[in-house]
Amino acid sequence: MQNGTLLAAIDLGSNSFRLEIGRYHSGHIERIEYIKETVRQGNGLDENKNLSLAAMQRGWECLARFAERLHGFKRQQVRAVATQTLREAKNRDDFLRKAQAILGFAIEVVSGHEEARLIYQGVSRLLPQSDEKRLVVDIGGRSTEMILGQGYQANRMESYRLGSVAWSTGYFAKGLFTAAAFKTADIAAKAVLDQALDSFPPADWSVAYGSSGTVGAVADLLSVNGWASGVITRSGLDWLVERMIKAGHIDQFKVEGLKEDRRPVLGGGVSVLRAIFDLFDIQQMVPAQGALRQGALYDLIDRDTDGGDVRERTVRWLATRFSVDEAQAQRVSAVSTALFAQMAALDAQNERYSQKLAWAARLHEIGTHISHDRSYHHGAYILDNVDAPGFSIPELHRMSELVLGQRGKLRKLEQSLTDDLFAMQLMSLRLAVLLCHARQMPEHESIKLSFKSGAFKLSTNPGWAKRYPQSAWLLGEEVLAWQKTTWKFTADIR
């Protein structure tokens, strides 16, 4: 990456949407601009986990303003990440379709583990380098991430379903600050986080850092009101809770330094933070400067570095973990991407689809580690449920569907096959799998594959069918399989 390159990260959180723009220089990022808008999308989830139209509209309007600022940025300069609210929302695709059209860039809905990884990456990059063992806590609107790491390496990561928006709505809905409300919120938070003690025992870390909104807001409040700057102490946190209970209601809570956009979610955020202090016997927590958005920026740098893309490392790790035949995986990957390139001009968008096809091809046999019988079903399940650093939830699901559809009936993917690019990816993978049936590199250069107006057409050079009769027969069976879909597939096998 060239010095001076502008990079942008967008964090679509449950409470706020944030835009961070930085300039790359020699491995570091200098902040150019930071914009935060309170969207409160998490408040728009109804009892059926559907986002209200009003909540979606607030998000679209915010992203329209971000889009204006990002005019002229290229795809590889921007990463937009959505977290817990859109992980939960059943109608998230309705929001995302319009949101991506407005923003002009892809929006990745990431898993809780991926969110935690990015948070730690952002925190660690902005801390002085040391060998200290760190616990990083990020209390978001609807989820709380906890990470144990050292240096730039995150060693343990978990995401828990509690946060400032969720707890404010559930335990301080009428704005009442009572001792009973705080006690109930505290018990509920500890019930969710109790299992975290096994993953992050105090003996395994020496310093606790807090990232993002709640920790930053509490630290600022304490500092303005005479407590030590740059740290949240247990006594300071207790003082804040006492002041809130004394006020009795959010509207009556008057304390210097309280920002109005933080007021509606302060009760929930503080109750979760105090529960963490209690559960882990924390005496003080240091507010960190870095957060998810900085982690996303540094991830863009890694993706631009040969071998630096964490997704590539994840694919290699999964292949090793599930004992994939590497030679066969590479053969299927090479053949499938070669076939895909014949149908899709490799512009910037199609290169991304080609890369995802290559990853799916390299992992197409991970299900055989469980059982050879219906191995593609097992492989699809693994990809839909594994914690895969670097990948978004939709990326993993698309790869899962490709693995599921590599053989067998196509009816199981009827809905996804309405997408031209997915159909081309799937056709390429299925053909590659059958051509590599002998677990040797097939003679595929003489096979021509095209796609036009909803129809696939394959042809071979004269004499190919005679030299490879089994492959020719398998291709004929594949034509019959596609006849049961809405796609046309003809083959001139000579």
Q: What can you tell me about this protein's structure?
A:
The protein has 494 residues and is α/β, with parallel strands linked by helices. It has three domains: 6-110 and 294-300, ATPase, nucleotide binding domain (Nucleotidyltransferase, domain 5, 2-Layer Sandwich), CATH 3.30.420; 127-288, Nucleotidyltransferase, domain 5, CATH 3.30.420.150; 306-444, Hypothetical protein af1432 (Orthogonal Bundle). The protein contains 19 helices and 14 strands. The chain has helices spanning 53-69, 84-88, 92-103, 112-125, 164-171, 179-193, 196-199, 213-224, 234-247, 263-279, 292-303, 310-321, 326-343, 348-362, 375-385, 393-404, 420-435, 464-467, 469-482, and strands at residues 6-12, 16-25, 28-38, 78-82, 107-109, 133-139, 144-150, 153-160, 207-211, 232-233, 284-287, 448-452, 455-459, 488-492. The strands form three sheets. The protein has a six-stranded mixed beta sheet with strand order 8-7-6-9-11-10, sandwiched between helices. The protein is elongated and about 90 Å long.
